[in-house]
Design brief:
Layout (H helix, E strand, L loop, with lengths): L2 E3 L4 E15 L9 E4 L8 E8 L3 H4 L3 H18 L6 E5 H6 L18 E3 L8 H17 L9 E3 L39 H20 L1
Amino acid sequence: NLSHKTKTSGVYTFCMSPGGEVVAAASEQLGVVVNGMSESRRSGRNSNCAVVCSVFKSDYGNTAEAAIDFQRTIERRAYIAGGSDYSAPIITVGDFLSGELRREPKRITPTYMDGSVRLCRPEEYLPPFVCENIKGALASFDKKISGFAREDALLTGAETRTSAPVRILRDRVTLLATGYQNLYPAGEGAGYAGGITSAAIDGLRTAIALMSKYRA
């Protein structure tokens, strides 16, 4: 993973998917969410990773509800920016950095929903400070690994689900959800992981806790 610090935030890469594809990951209607994945052979034509900008309470508010609303607003704006048909908004890195919108993807073929994409400026669905921070980060990343700021590289939005904005409380020993007898919250969606490896580890811990209950 690469990281870049700005005056107000941090930007980092997340979940590198070699030979992978960008997939639809929305869980609500009228929203567009993307994610990256690789199949076992990692034999796809492209590789991808998320480029993530940190946000704080000063950006979205002081409550869990405000955090979810902030996320949902981005997803709905991405849906509209993509044409309101669940296509994903895309832009080349060259156009993003120059503020233009004129390059169709050529070297890189979009993989999201078999190419259901639409050229769009990220400013249409992302907060201005996020766009500015990502622009600075891409130039920084390119100095570490050449290619991140390549003009024909492709950006697809929006990935808003790197970590859960809320956490389902659970007992520290049994891992049961607080107030419930047979519910085991685990992994990223429940707020206990922030990536493939940490989610897998938490899944193992939860499975062991569940087995221990029935062995007792």
